[in-house]
Every structure is written in C-alpha cells, then in structure tokens.
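Structure tokens please, single chain.
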Amino acid sequence: MKTVVHTAQSRGHANHGWLNAHHSFSFASWYNPERINFGALRVLNDDVIAAGAGFPTHPHDNMEIITIPLSGVLEHKDSMGNIAQIKAGEVQVMSAGTGVTHSEYNGSSTEELKLFQIWLFPNKKNVSPRYDDLELKVADRKNKFQQILSPSPDDDGVWIHQDAWMHMIQMDASLQRDYTVKKPNNGVYIMVIHGKVGINDVTLSTRDAIGVTDASSISISAIEQSELLLIDVPMNF
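Here you go.
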C-alpha cells in the first residue's frame, strides 16, 4: 500500500468574495506541479458560493463533471436544455463530451451554497454530451458505503464514461469499516468531509484527504463521528 496525504491547509485557496474556493489539485491560478491529478481524478474543488452569485455560462468538453451539494441549492442551466435545482442529498453529473455550455448559480438570495465539484478524465472522448441528477437516500450511508457513482447506468447512483466509483459514508465514533477497491490498479482518494478518522496509521481531520494506491482494501477507523467521500479511479488511463 502506498499513500499520499493532502492536508486541508495544503490545498490551493482563492477567495473572490462571491466565491471562496479550495483546490485539492492545480486549478485556475493555483499551480502545484506535484498536485496535478490523482489518476483519472483531475479536480476536487471545495466551493462556497455567496447568496445569489455563481458561475455564468462557460464551456466544457471531454470531461466528466460531478457536483455534490453539501448545503444550499444549486441552480443549473445548460445548452442541452436542462434546467435543475440540486440540493444536499443529491448528486449531479454531466458528461461534457463533444462540448457543452452551462451556468451554475446559488439558488438562494440569503444562504451560502457549499459544494464539491469533481472532474474526472473520461475513458471515451467526443461522446454525445449528457446530463443527469439523482436524489440519494442519505440514510443509506449510515455506517456503510453508499455508492453514488459508477461506470454502469444499471448500477446504483449516476454513471460516467470511466471505470470509476464514488461512495459516501457517515460513520459513528469508534466504528471501523473496510472499503474494497473496485478494480485492480485503481486508487482511492478519500476526503474527510467532517470529523476525524484513522487510515493506515494516519489521522485525518475535516477536509484532509489521503490517496491510496497498490491496495485491494482500505481500513477506516472513525475517531469521532465522521463523513467521508471516496473516489475510486484508474491510476493509468
């Protein structure tokens, strides 16, 4: 087993007033040659968007884009004709493929919007753009790994064009769980949304992350009540 630890404090940070963003990997004006990607995982942005603010219409192509609201309401509009409001407990996916434009705004005029935006490199280029969102049963992640994304439209969660999986789990204090890596040669990037856990003799706190490779399973021990996001991705693609 090999690991790389990214503490919350080591992330890139940009506060634009309307947007307070932390970057796990090089993004926009923040560049770290040692933090370009983790396998197929290219972007993990931890964004806080002020009330009424957001990203105006902008383009993407050949990227799998996943958005996980943590609190508040996200308003989405895109060139495929999709208009949606996404809130905590839901997940949104967009395969940019040959090209798509979209806008993302805080749907509240009074409350902040907090979300993770995640980009994964696809395993197929120039596919037809597609959009989906799904309401999740948050209770299904209580002390167990809830799958929220996979490569298959027939499996739980949303799906993308990549041999990648995402899970979320809410763990009670003192609980231990083993996560099984979904595919040989995949690595797993684990973000502590909140709480404190132990992984491979490393203690991780809120917004700390660890990347694990060369492992078939990963043991996670909750030191206190915690919630985690696990991103299982190909390391060679």
